Amino acid sequence: MARLIATTPCAGLLPLAIGSVTVTEVDAGPVTLIAPYDGAQKATSDALKAAVGVGFPAPNRTLGQTQGKRPRIVWCGMGQAVLMGADCPDLPQAAVVDQSDAWAIVRIDGADAAAVLARLTPIDLRDSQFKRGHTARTLVAHMTVSVTRVGAQTYEVMAMRSMAGTLVHDLEQAAKNVAARAALA
Amino acid sequence: MRLPCPICGERDRREFYYQGDAVALDRPARDAGGAAWDDYLHNRDNPAGETRDLWHHAAGCGAWIVVTRDTVTHAVSGAKLVGAKR
Amino acid sequence: MRVIKPTGTPLTFTFDGVQYRGVEGDTLASALLANGVKLVGRSFKYHRPRGIVTAGSEEPNALVTIGTGPSQEPNVRATTVQLFNGLEARSQNAWPSLKRDAMAVNDLAAPFLSAGFYYKTFMWPKAFWEKLYEPIIRRAAGLGALSGEANSDTYEKAFAHCDVLVIGAGPAGLMAALTAGRAGADVIVADEDAVMGGRLLAETFDVDGQAGADWAADAVAELAAMPNVRLMPRTTVTGAYDQGTFGALEEVSRHVPRSDAPRECFWRITAKRSILCAGALERPIAFPNNDRPGIMMASAVRAYLNRWGVAPGKAVTIFANNDDAHRTAVDLMDAGVKVAGVIDSRADVAALGDYPLYTSGAVIGTKGRHALDSITITHAGGTRELRTDCLAMSGGWNPTVHLTCHMNGRPQWDDAIQSFVPVEGAIPGMVVAGAANGQMSTAACLQSGAQAACAVATELGLSPVADVPSAEDDPYRIEPLWQVDGKGRKWIDFQNDVHVKDIKLSAQENFRSVEHMKRYTTQGMATDQGKSSNVVALAVLADATGRGIPETGTTTFRPPYVPVSIAAMGAGSQGHGFAPKRLTTSHHASVARGAPMIEAGLWYRPSYFPHPGEATWLESCNREVGYVRNAVGVCDVSTLGKIDIQGPDAAAFLDFVYCNTFSTLKENRVRYGLMLREDGHVMDDGTTARLGADHYVMTTTTAAAGQVMTHLDWVSQALRPDLDVRFASVTEQWAQFAVAGPQARELLNSVLDDAVDGDAWPFMSCGPVSIGGVKGRLFRISFSGEHAYELAVPSRYGASLFRLLTAQAEALGGGAYGMEALNVLRIEKGFITHAEIHGRVTAFDIGFDRMVSQKKDCVGNAASRRPGLLEAERPQLVGLKAVDPKDKITAGAHLFVEGADPVSANDQGYVSSVCWSPTLGSHIGLGFVADGPNRMGEHIVAVDHVRGVRTLVEVCHPVQFDPEGERTRG
Q1: Is A106 found in the same domain as A81?
Q2: Are A132 and A78 in the same domain?
Q3: Among the partner residues A77, A78, A139, nearest to B15 by beta-carbon distance
Q4: Of B1, B30, B64, which has the smallest distance from its Cβ to C713's Cβ?
Q5: What's the domain count of chain A?
Q6: What pLDDT was estimated at residue B86?
Q7: Cys-Cys link to C168, which of B77, C18, C173, C396 (CB 3.0-4.6 A)?
Q8: Nearest to residue C320, comparing CAs of C368, C279, C367, C355?
Q9: Are residues C268 and C181 in the same domain?
Q10: Predicted model pTM
Q11: Angle, alpha carbons C102-C144-C55 (nearest 5°)
Q12: Is residue C367 within 8 angstroms of chain B, CB to CB?
């Protein structure tokens, strides 16, 4: 019988440690896009909560644990969220799409993590505006991505799998610039 | 330039794709006739002042929105989802 | 000459190869002046010797080139370059040397080089302009040059957000920042200088009983300690844009010898409110020969003296129309520098100290070849000559209103300070404070800075407290003086060499509008954008045209406030940063096989897979076509857009976005679909599979995947919100491979867990399969005309599956094929791509008119019925075959009836796709010919005027190979 071997999106590209910042690949486990049908957001949320313990998130928010492979759900667009770290229950009232292989997910961690992202994304990353559990669909350089704050100085970026190389390149360049600035002072 | 996405809040214009006049929302019936379709497809005003135009939050939540803004002052006075029209 | 012993670390630097000493904290300009270097450049047009005029970013004269090699940077203002050990600077626009500049002969020809000279002189012959005149002029009149090598420095772009952006950190800016910061606002303070403090660093004023510079240092320390305040020194806010967005240029590492850090960073700062505290710029007076090295702004003389301990001369004279003249004299005398005389244009003024005062005075002439030697003055008591090596001039102060005008605002004239001041509300959310708003005393600056911050902080819901320190509050007394009569040119725009006579000539030749005068004379069009000279110029124009200054008006202030390098604006977008690279899961395997990768949108796809011994791409391509026609080929087709569509109304939605019908498609079946734009033209095509009752997966072309997704969003949200449907891109989720050729099924059955057969898997069927336990999807579709499948697995297995499939294909006498072979295969079969559906063709044009179902509405249905889109004479899709099979056809060639003149009036259509068909042994193509379907068999000429190719071709059916489609279904 044929045997297929799995490769992760950032294989051979990560991890990186530059200055105060590390960039690592995240294995989020199963990733499922959930889009409730008309009028079914609450029913979807209830069903999710019953099955995996997290409901359907409000726009620009996440629910659930941010560490490890525990269930969490990340809003990712109008009427859509991705469930990560848990198998998706049967949800007849929602469109359910397996995206476990669609995303390159990287974690940017460190004192200068926000400074690195500020080189690449136009969103307001200030502590008062973008707190732990907040998420945004936005740009990183020229890429459409999802950015989530998962800790005091930790962010996750989800980009298209095919763009993993560019994502790492852009983060690496930004991190080098930030580190070189720090060395000036 | 920044636009107020009804879902995501105020965002940098580079997240948005510009489409054109919100007239595109008023799609004529299939049998409305040549003149109605000509107007719908091709004829646009070019106002100095308030305009309503369509933007797609392409690098954001994916919402199509109608933005009301002033072509003279560039002031943006509001935005709503296109779906809210119906 | 350094008159106050410096405390900074000694540094060495070179200027034009000569080594000098400076100290830490110096600018290149202060260090040059400390070393007695007065001649620093040659002017743009007349190559007149010029020296340092100002101490800030408004400097018109002292442009130098710094660095060498790839990082050489021309046209840098010496007044803004922070000195570091080993700095190399060179003068510009002089040959062979600054002192003996050959082109200085231009100055002797000055009577012939007046404003408008080029327009009048080089009109004809027309061809001479580009080949002769322009190169000569460019060589003679110029600035510094780039190295010609690729820039090796890094640049950066970044975004910042705040509640309050304070622009400028002089007394007003620091006070505004302190007030807003203490109130808890999130503040960014941006200042162009390396050290914050503005004029407090350059004057001898006290604030709260302490030296102004010390107060500024304390304020900066307090701000730096606030977590809600971000200080951005060396950062010039260059533009004010819509909705509180600002551009700002930060010099990150120009002030250090060598660093990996970016040289500059271009910031986009978003601020809820802004406080403009940009200060004011002193303006010159247009008196005869006022451009000699040694003549500078009075404010600059005080700055060099008070901040850097440098006296720009040994015997200084001062010429002014306001009280600054006397403060300059007092500061110089306090430092022990001789003041040879103060020439005040006003009649009723008294000296503040023991210096010669000439009231009702004016400078009417200057002397000195490479630097100032003496001046001739008139005054209440007559005319006399004064020996002086430095003349400090002040024509008054212009508030720095630039940013307030970036959104179409116009400043207004204020008679009391003889200058333009900003109008309120010119930039939404911006308040102007300090000298930028016409507040000319230190106390007024501090007060207005605090007030502005209180106003914006209150608007932001905070409770600010104004705690304003005491400071000098002297009145600002000025009487207008713009120009002085006398023999010699009276310079206004030093950088572009514009003088009073040029402006008068402009008025005389009826270029009376200030905007016309600007373009006629080039006044204010140099790199300094006339920062110090524009107001003088329009005062002269007002005088020449008999109008008042307010009536004459200003030219338009546009961003950027200071020059911004293209490198900074394009930072991060060179090389890999130019655009994202989308790589398929088989990318590395393809590259390892030596495949040249070609771009398809953002994707990279293999062109062909060369084998040893193959000399050209065509040999490889022909072999790969043979794989598919004779054995089996494998091709990565993951780049095609894949959109998962689900919902109770999914079928109805597809019926609305496709011109043909999908609600009738059975489950586990695939159908070809054609999507129109609302104007009736073809948007895209592809196959859509029905995976379940309410579940489809649509494929788009690689090129149009993004456009189709946007379109589906549009249709769903705007046109058919009544339909309950959801969709999501799954392009990235699935790695998909075409397996095509007579042995396709054999190959598949060697890898699938459960074999497929013809009965269960007829042409256009689809369904789930598994490969080594991995769940995949199989589609029996063909873009080659062969018995073919597309096999999809989750992307993590893509690389592995590609290796497996190609190995199996090779075992069966086939192998991987690339884009070139794919293209040949589809042209042989008449399958269209965006070479055919290029945006100007309709379903009718490609012979698919009957697909536009008239039983239902769909996007583009109504417009596709327009009479003009359904006429026989429209160019329609045909196949083309070279009459002599060896004759090459070229894409883009136009088609003409044999014997007709190949001009556009006789155009019958065009060629859209071409290839050498190894299967048919002929050059073939696809194209569009007027009334094409009725011209089968006709010989027609393809003429390619660009490449000079002319080919006799036969019009034929688009499907040239296996027209019955037996191979596909077999």
Answers
A1: no
A2: no
A3: A139
A4: B64
A5: 2
A6: 34
A7: C173
A8: C355
A9: yes
A10: 0.95
A11: 105
A12: no
